[in-house]
Design goal:
The complex is a heterodimer.
Chain A: H1 3-9, H2 22-40, H3 45-54, E1 70-71, H4 81-84, H5 88-96, H6 113-123, E2 127-130, E3 140-143, H7 145-163, E4 172-175, H8 183-196, H9 213-228, H10 233-263, E5 269-273, H11 275-287, E6 300-304, H12 316-323, E7 333-335, E8 344-345, E9 353-354, E10 359-364, E11 378-387, E12 396-406, E13 418-419, E14 424-425, H13 426-429
Parallel strand pairs in A: 1-12, 4-5, 5-6, 6-7
Antiparallel strand pairs in A: 2-3, 7-8, 9-13, 10-11, 11-12, 12-13, 12-14
Helix pairs in contact in A: 1-2, 7-8, 10-11, 11-12
Chain B: E1 14-15, E2 18-20, E3 23-25, E4 30-33, E5 40-43, H1 48-51, H2 66-81, H3 86-98, H4 103-114, H5 119-129, H6 134-137, E6 140-143, E7 148-155, E8 158-162, H7 169-180, E9 184-188, H8 196-207, E10 217-220, H9 227-233, E11 241-245, H10 249-255, E12 263-267, E13 271-276, H11 284-298, E14 309-315, H12 318-339, H13 347-358, E15 364-367, E16 374-378, E17 390-396, E18 410-416, H14 421-431, E19 435-438, H15 456-460, E20 462-470
Parallel strand pairs in B: 1-5, 8-9, 8-11, 9-10, 11-12, 13-14, 13-18, 14-17, 16-17, 18-19
Antiparallel strand pairs in B: 2-3, 2-10, 4-5, 6-7, 7-20, 15-16
Helix pairs in contact in B: 2-8, 3-8, 4-7, 11-12
Classes of the chains: A alpha/beta, B alpha/beta.
C-alpha cells in the first residue's frame, strides 16, 4: 500500500484529525491519489478503461482524478437479465470488473438466489452491499475484509466525535428503522453495540422481516417482468399480497418499538434510525402520554441518511429530540453513503459536516463532468469524494448530491473542509415536467414497491 | 426542498408570450426552467378567465364550414413557410436556445411540419376519421330499421392539449386537428418548446385577427404538475377532454383529474423497433443497403421521436450480425455527422455501455459513448432506453423470437424483407404494436391512418344526438 495514503488513514483515531486544512493536506493527498491510481489501474478493469479513455498516466493535481471518478451509477451498470435469469457466473464476472481484488475460486454450483450468491462471495472475503433501490436497480458495492475492519473503527470514532458520547458501554440501543441486512450495516451495528451498549442489554431490532438483497431484488425483477409482460396475473396478485403483508408488519413495528422504549424509559438510551422512523416512533410515544420528562437527559441518537423523500412536518427534528430528551449538543448527524467507507460527522458548534483527511472532496459542476476548481471559501456544486481508506473497490465516487463545500475554518475551530447542512439530491431538484412521445413501457407499470 | 431559480440578467432571459383567443400576452411574471438544458425563460401569469370561455358560449367554429377551416389552415401553412414571417423566425431563434436538437434539425422540422397543412392531407384525415364527415358541419339525419329518426352531430368539443417537448410537428398537427373538429382549444406548451404554438397562432391572427379559428385557440405554459394551475383548469365544467402526449410523471399528474365528463385521450409514450430477416445478410452489398435503411429509422429526428427505432432484432449468426452492426454504425455515424448533433450520452447509459465493453465476450460495441453514434449487439434488449443515436442490435436465430419483446409501448416496427411482413403482422398486433412498415420508412405513413391504435379526431368530438321520434 502507498505510504502517503497510509499516512492519512493512520489519522483515523487522532482526536485532532479534523484540524488539518485542505492546504496542509494537499500535497500528501495528491501523492496518495497518485499511489492509489497506479496501484489500482491495472487491477480494477473499469478504472483501466476510464484511464485509457482519458489518457491518464498519473495524478499530479487533485483535479486530474475527475475523469476516473466513478458515478454512483457505475455500481448498477450490470444487465438486469443476470438477476432475472440467475446468471451467477455473469454477475460474478461483472463484479470482477469493479473489484480491486481478483474474484477467484467462488463455487457457483447450486446457488439458491442472490442472498446465497452473496454468502458464497463473503466466504471468499468479498462483501457485497446493495443500495435499497425499490423501483430501480440496486447498486452492488464490493468491499474487502479490510474495508469491514475500517468501518468498524470509523463508525465509532465518527459517532463519538460528532455526538460527544463517550463509548462507555452503558446504553440500551434501540433500532427505529428497518435496516437492510448487508455486510456493511451488520458490521457497523455490531461495532456500535460493542462500543456503546451495556453488554447485558440486547439491542432492540426494529421488528420487521429482514430486508435482504434478495427481497430487494425480487421487487426489481418483478417490476421488470411486469414491464415485459411476462408476469402472470396470479404472480402479480401474490406479489401484491406479500407487499401488503409487509406494509402491515412495518406499520406494527412502530407501536411495538414505542412500547419497548416506554418500558425502558428509565435506562440510558441510544436511538438509531432514519428520520421517518424516528419521527413515527416519537409520535407514538407522545400519543401514549410520554415525553421529555420521562427520559434520561443523557440519551443519545444516531441518525443515518437524510429524509429519503419522506414527507414529515417541518419541525420533525425538534420533535424527535424533544420527545426523547436528547440534549441540544447531542444532535448527531453523519454525512456518508454506501459508496464511501467513512463518515463525515456534523460538528456541534458549527453544524457542518467535516471531511476527514483520508477523504478528498472535489466539487464538480452540476453534470459531474468538470471540476469547478474550487480551492477556497464556500461554493455549491455536485459532490465527489475520493475515500483513500477503500481497499476492495475504487475510492473515487461522484455522488448525486448538491452540497456547499467550504475550505474556510469552521465555527467549531477545525480547519478541515466542511459541508453545509443543506445537502440535497439533484434528482429531487430536477423538474418532473418531462413530456415527449418517445418513451418506454416503464410509463405503463404501476403498483410495485 | 425546492430550487429557487433566480432570474438572470434581463438580456439572458428568453421571453415566451401567451396567446389568448387572438390576443398576445407578454409578461415576465414567472421564471421557468426548460428541461434538458436548464435554460430559464419568462412567461406571464395565466389569466384563467381569458383562457377558458364559459360553456354558455357556443364554440365559435361550430357553424364555420369545414371547407373554410381547411382553406384557412392551408393559408396558414403557406405563411408559416414564408421567410418574411417574423413570428416563425423569432420562434426558431428562441427555440434554438431552449431545444435539445441542433439548429438545422429544428429549422428543418418546422418546415416539414407545415407540410401537414395541405388541403388533400387534411381532407384525407377527416375522411378517414369519420364515416360521414358531414357530421362536423351539420346535424346529420339518421333513421334506424324501426323507423325511429334522429340527427347526429360530431359536436365541437372543449379540449386541453398537453403538447410534447420533442417534436415541433405535433404543434402544427394539434392546431389543425383542434380546428377541424371545431374545438375550443387550450394548448399547454412544453418547457422544451414554449414558442412554436404561439408563433403558429400569431401567424393565423395576422391573417385574420377575428377569425373564429383564432378565437378558438389559446396557448399557455405552466410547469407540468403545477397543482395551482391544474386544479383550476382540469375540470369537466371547463373541458371535455385532455389530449396528452407522453407518459410517466406527465400523465401521472393528469390522471388525478380524470373522471366522468373529463376524459383522457392519450398518445402514449412509444418505443419503435426494427426487425431484420436473414435475407438482409446474404452479401456485403445487401448488408450495407439494409443497414442504411435501418439507420434512417434509428436517426428519425436524431432518435428523439417515438417512431425512431431503438432496438433492431436481426436474424442470423453472430459473425453475420456483427458485419451488419459495423455497417449500421457507419451509417448512423454518417447521419449524425451530417446533422451536426453531438451530445454526449447521459451518465447512466455511458456506465452501462462501458460495463458491456468490459464484458466483451457477451456484447459487441461499435463506436463510443461520445454521442457520435453507437451500436451495441446483445442477445436480449439492453436495460436502458437507447437514445441519442444509439442502436441496440439483438441477435436472434429466428425473427419469431422477437415477438416476445413486442409490448403495449411498441409503436412502429420497421421490417425487412418486406415480403415477410404479412407473416408477422397478426402476432405484432397481438403483442400490442401499432404499425408495421418497410424498413427505412418509419417516418411516413398513409395519410389519415390511425395513430396510436385509434382514430383520434373521432375520439375528440362530442357525439350529440337529437332524437326526432318515430316518423
Amino acid at each position: 500500500m502507498g505510504t502517503a495514503a497510509d499516512k492519512l488513514t493512520s489519522l483515523v483515531a487522532d482526536p485532532e484529525r479534523f484540524a488539518f486544512s485542505a492546504e496542509e493536506l494537499r500535497e500528501t493527498q495528491v501523492a496518495a491519489l497518485d499511489e492509489r491510481f497506479r496501484e489500482r489501474k491495472d487491477r480494477i478493469k473499469l478504472l483501466g478503461l476510464r484511464a485509457r479513455d482519458a489518457g491518464l498516466e498519473e495524478i499530479a493535481r487533485i483535479e486530474d482524478v475527475v475523469p476516473v471518478l466513478f458515478p454512483h451509477t457505475a455500481y448498477k451498470s450490470y444487465p438486469e437479465s443476470y438477476l432475472m435469469d440467475e446468471r451467477w457466473d455473469r454477475l460474478t464476472k461483472w463484479v470482477g470488473t469493479i473489484s480491486a481484488h481478483p474474484i477467484e475460486g467462488v463455487p457457483l454450483d447450486g446457488i439458491e438466489g442472490i442472498d446465497d450468491w452473496i454468502a458464497r462471495l463473503a466466504e471468499r472475503g468479498h462483501f457485497i452491499s446493495c443500495s435499497s433501490g425499490t423501483t430501480g436497480k440496486s447498486a452492488m458495492l464490493i468491499a474487502s475484509q479490510k474495508d469491514m475492519d475500517w468501518s468498524k473503527v470509523d463508525t465509532v470514532n465518527v459517532f463519538a466525535w460528532g455526538s460527544g458520547v463517550v463509548p462507555a458501554r452503558d446504553r440500551l440501543i434501540v433500532g427505529c428503522a428497518p435496516v437492510a441486512t448487508v455486510p456493511k450495516n451488520a458490521t457497523i451495528a455490531k461495532a456500535q453495540y460493542d462500543a456503546f451498549a451495556n453488554p447485558e442489554w440486547p439491542r432492540w431490532n426494529y421488528p420487521v422481516p429482514p430486508i435482504t438483497v434478495g427481497s430487494l431484488t425480487a421487487m426489481v425483477v418483478m417490476r421488470k417482468k411486469i414491464a415485459e409482460g411476462t408476469a402472470r396475473p396470479d404472480e402479480i396478485a401474490a406479489f401484491e399480497e406479500t407487499s401488503a403483508e409487509r406494509a402491515r408488519l412495518v406499520a406494527d413495528a412502530v407501536p411495538a418499538t414505542a412500547q419497548f422504549i416506554i418500558e425502558n424509559r428509565h435506562r440510558k438510551l441510544q436511538l438509531s434510525g432514519l428520520w421517518s422512523g424516528l419521527w413515527q416512533v416519537a409520535k407514538a410515544v407522545r400519543d401514549a402520554g410520554y415525553g421529555r420528562d420521562d427520559f434520561d437527559p443523557d440519551n443519545s441518537i444516531y441518525v443515518g441518511g437524510g429524509l429519503k423523500r419522506a414527507q414529515l412536518p417541518a419541525d420533525y427534528q425538534e420533535y424527535v429530540f424533544e420527545t426523547f430528551n436528547i440534549p441540544a449538543d447531542r444532535h448527531f448527524q453523519n454525512y456518508s453513503m454506501q459508496e464511501l467507507n467513512s463518515g463525515m460527522p456534523k460538528c456541534r458548534e458549527g453544524g457542518r459536516y467535516h471531511v476527514p483527511p483520508w477523504i478528498v472532496p472535489i466539487l464538480l459542476d452540476k453534470s459531474g463532468d468538470e471540476a469547478l476548481g474550487h480551492a477556497e471559501g464556500e461554493r455549491e456544486g455536485r459532490a465527489a469524494f475520493f475515500d483513500l481508506s477503500l481497499d476492495g473497490r475504487w475510492g473515487g465516487v461522484i455522488t448525486g448530491d448538491k452540497v456547499s463545500l467550504d475550505y474556510s475554518p469552521c465555527a467549531c475551530g477545525n480547519h478541515a473542509p466542511s459541508i453545509r447542512d443543506d445537502i440535497a439530491r439533484y434528482a429531487d431538484l430536477e423538474s418532473d415536467d418531462k413530456i415527449g412521445c418517445a418513451g418506454t413501457v416503464d410509463a405503463y407499470v404501476r403498483g410495485v414497491a | 426542498m425546492s430550487e429557487i431559480v433566480m432570474p438572470e440578467v434581463a438580456e439572458d432571459l428568453v421571453s415566451a408570450p401567451f396567446f389568448l383567443r387572438g390576443e398576445v400576452l407578454h409578461g415576465t411574471d414567472v421564471i421557468q426552467t426548460s428541461r434538458d438544458l436548464g435554460v430559464t425563460f419568462a412567461t406571464p401569469r395565466i389569466p384563467f378567465d381569458r383562457a377558458v370561455p364559459p360553456r354558455t358560449e357556443v364554440p365559435p367554429l361550430l357553424n364555420v364550414p369545414l371547407a373554410e377551416i381547411i382553406d384557412f389552415l392551408v393559408e396558414t401553412g403557406q405563411r408559416l413557410l414564408a421567410s418574411e414571417n417574423p413570428h416563425m423566425q423569432e420562434c426558431i431563434e428562441r427555440m434554438c436556445r431552449t431545444h435539445i436538437l441542433p439548429r438545422a434539425v429544428v429549422e428543418n422540422t418546422a418546415r416539414h411540419a407545415a407540410a401537414y397543412l395541405d388541403k388533400r392531407v387534411l381532407m384525407a384525415e377527416v375522411e378517414q376519421n369519420f364515416p360521414d364527415p358531414r357530421a362536423l358541419d351539420e346535424w346529420v339525419p339518421k333513421e334506424d330499421f324501426t323507423g325511429r329518426r334522429s340527427f347526429v352531430r360530431a359536436f365541437a368539443p372543449r379540449l386541453i392539449h398537453v403538447l410534447p417537448g420533442n417534436s415541433p410537428g405535433v404543434a402544427v398537427k394539434s392546431v389543425a386537428q383542434g380546428a377541424m373538429v371545431k374545438a375550443i382549444n387550450l394548448f399547454k406548451m412544453s418547457s422544451a418548446d414554449p414558442f412554436t404554438m404561439v408563433a403558429i397562432l400569431r401567424t393565423m391572427a395576422d391573417l385574420d385577427p377575428g377569425h373564429p379559428i383564432v378565437r378558438s385557440m389559446s396557448a399557455v405554459y405552466w410547469r407540468g404538475g403545477d397543482e395551482a394551475t391544474e386544479r383550476v383548469l382540469y375540470r369537466p365544467q371547463y373541458f371535455d377532454k385532455i389530449v396528452a402526449w407522453g407518459g410517466g410523471d406527465a400523465i401521472a399528474n393528469v390522471i388525478k383529474y380524470i373522471g366522468p365528463g373529463f376524459q383522457l385521450v392519450s398518445f402514449d409514450p412509444k418505443t419503435s423497433i426494427s426487425m431484420v430477416g436473414r435475407e438482409a445478410l446474404v452479401d456485403d452489398a445487401t448488408i450495407d443497403a439494409v443497414a442504411d435503411l435501418c439507420s434512417a429509422d434509428v436517426m428519425t429526428l436524431n432518435q428523439e421521436a417515438c417512431v425512431a427505432s431503438r432496438f433492431q432484432f436481426v436474424e442470423g449468426d453472430e459473425a453475420a450480425v456483427d458485419r451488419f452492426c459495423a455497417r449500421l454504425h457507419h451509417h448512423i455515424a454518417r447521419r449524425a455527422a451530417e446533422s451536426g448533433d453531438v451530445r454526449p450520452l447521459d451518465r447512466d447509459m455511458r456506465e452501462a455501455v462501458e460495463s458491456m465493453t468490459l464484458m466483451d465476450d457477451e456484447y459487441g460495441v461499435w463506436g463510443r459513448t461520445d454521442g457520435r453514434g453507437l451500436v451495441i449487439r446483445s442477445d436480449g434488449p439492453v436495460d436502458f432506453h437507447p437514445i441519442n443515436k444509439t442502436a441496440n442490435v439483438v441477435r436472434l436465430d429466428s425473427l419469431d423470437d422477437a415477438v416476445k419483446w413486442i409490448n403495449v409501448a411498441t409503436q412502429t416496427v420497421g421490417f425487412y424483407p418486406f415480403g415477410r411482413m404479412a407473416t408477422y403482422r397478426d402476432r405484432l398486433a397481438a403483442g400490442g404494436a401499432q404499425r408495421v412498415v418497410h424498413l427505412g420508412e418509419a417516418g411516413p405513413s398513409t395519410i389519415g391512418n390511425p395513430h396510436d391504435a385509434m382514430y383520434p379526431l373521432h375520439r375528440f368530438v362530442h357525439w350529440m344526438a337529437h332524437e326526432d321520434g318515430r316518423g
